[in-house]
Automatic annotation (TrEMBL):
This is Fatty acid desaturase domain-containing protein. It comes from the Eukaryota. The keyword Ligase does not apply. The lineage of its organism: Eukaryota, Fungi, Dikarya, Ascomycota, Pezizomycotina. Keywords: Membrane, Transmembrane, Transmembrane helix. The keyword Transmembrane applies. Residues 133-350 form the Fatty acid desaturase domain. InterPro entries: FA_desaturase_dom (IPR005804). It holds the Pfam family FA_desaturase. PANTHER family: FATTY ACID DESATURASE DOMAIN-CONTAINING PROTEIN-RELATED, ORF. The chain crosses the membrane at residues 103-125, 221-240.
Length: 432
């Protein structure tokens, strides 16, 4: 299909979804109305994806590594390794993780506690600049996958089994070790993302809302970034206090101040190690979170900015979905924040007609970071090429029309428009 790029590194689920959409584009370009063909294809693809997630199915395909699918490992590893190492590991890990598909969660935890933690400890014991730089680069590589593992953790109240008291305790407390190493302050991700962002949904009371910004303007982005970078430690507690949630406000204020106090003490004890182990990851994470959120919520329909379909997007790309637990299915996540990450492609296909009706946006071959970059470059032609048109209306658009459509969705909202489109802003939190 012209303009549709099938990366060889796409996940199995993403290949199914992208092939499904590509076939509909072909049908649409022919001007054909073949709803029965589309329905049969949807049913077949949904059943295939469900079987991948079903431990009772012969097609069950747990995720073991972010980088490779299990079937790839089975094809490439020596049989003796697969039989005596991989298979026993999967069998053991399936008993430890919360969902049997999520062997990868155990893999990542083993990775972090066998590399990040001992490396950080050694830097405080015997610091060298070479080790410090290598450690920071390692953490920079880990942070995306780790953050989206934690994303699953905060929405599902854990990623490991509840059947073992010891495992449950580890699941509850490991973030207090690993979060600071990855640039997160203690508990801030939970309070900002779950208790705040998903309540407000990019509305006017959302501290990370993009509504008041021109989303292709560099100065607006720098203002957006700077506010979060330097003032979220205060803005978030004040938000909760304004909404009458005094306990949440007090808790997040305590954790933010305690975190910064701990960093101050560590810096006094060992400034170099603290810089490479904690401070640089913190700065990188703050930057990454805002670059990502800008891309996730840059395109907002002026007619219905409070719609999850029209204020967030879906990405079918390697970085977001293979390495970051289907983070590309952002619309699906906002529609149901507690939906398991492996269920997003299925939910997308099941609700595809609704996505079409609501004029939702689907992109491919681009991640949130590059969406932000291309927006700030005002390169709407590139973004138009990455768009996967869904529904006849989008399919019939020329590349220029697609670019113009996307440009119109990044316009800054005036305060008058915000009052008109969000008449009950400020009341939502108290009513929940």
């Amino acid at each position: 299909m012209e303009n549709i790029v099938f990366s060889p590194d796409l996940t199995i689920a993403d290949k199914v979804v992208l092939e499904n959409l590509s076939s509909e584009i072909e049908i649409g370009l022919l001007g054909a109305n073949r709803e029965s063909i589309k329905a049969r294809r949807d049913s077949r693809d949904i059943s295939a994806l469900q079987s991948f997630n079903d431990p009772k199915s012969q097609d069950f395909d747990p995720t073991v590594l972010s980088t490779y699918d299990l079937r790839h490992l089975r094809r490439t590893l020596p049989v003796i390794v697969g039989k005596n190492v991989v298979a026993p590991y999967i069998a053991s890990a399936r008993r430890i993780v919360r969902h049997e598909t999520d062997v990868v969660m155990a893999t990542h935890l083993i990775l972090y506690f066998s590399t990040s933690v001992p490396s950080a400890i050694w830097l405080f014991y015997n610091f060298t600049y070479l080790h410090g730089v290598v450690h920071f680069l390692m953490q920079a590589w880990y942070t995306g996958s780790y953050t989206l593992m934690r994303h699953q953790h905060i929405h599902q109240n854990g990623v490991l089994t509840k059947d073992s008291s010891l495992v449950r305790l580890f699941d509850m407390y490991f973030p207090y070790v690993t979060d600071p190493l990855m640039g997160h302050t203690w508990n801030s991700y939970y309070y900002h993302h779950v208790k705040h962002h998903h309540v407000e949904g990019n509305g006017p009371d959302d501290l990370s809302s993009t509504l008041r910004y021109q989303r292709d303007d560099l100065l607006h982005f720098l203002h957006y970034l700077g506010r979060f970078f330097f003032f979220v430690w205060l803005d978030l507690p004040l938000y909760f206090f304004r909404k009458g949630q005094t306990v949440n406000g007090a808790r997040i204020l305590f954790w933010e101040l305690f975190n910064y106090f701990s960093l101050f003490i560590l810096y006094q004890l060992h400034s170099k190690a603290t810089t490479f182990v904690f401070l640089l990851p913190l700065l990188l994470m703050r930057l990454g979170l805002m670059v990502g959120n800008w891309g996730q919520h840059a395109f907002v329909d002026p007619d219905e900015p409070d719609s999850d379909f029209r204020s967030s997007i879906t990405l079918i790309d390697v970085a977001s979905n293979r390495h970051c637990f289907n983070d590309g299915y952002h619309t699906s996540h906002h529609l149901n924040p507690r939906r398991h990450w492996r269920e997003h492609p299925i939910a997308f296909l099941q609700q595809k007609r609704k996505y079409v009706e609501e004029k939702a946006l689907v992109f491919h071959n681009i991640d949130y970071l590059m969406i932000t970059v291309k927006l700030l470059q005002k390169d709407y032609d590139h973004l138009a090429r990455c768009l996967v048109p869904i529904g006849q209306e989008q399919i019939e658009l020329s590349m220029k029309d697609r670019a113009d459509m996307l440009r119109g969705l990044t316009r800054r909202f005036t305060e008058e428009e915000i009052r008109e489109k969000f008449p009950r802003a400020g009341q939502k939190q108290k009513e929940l």
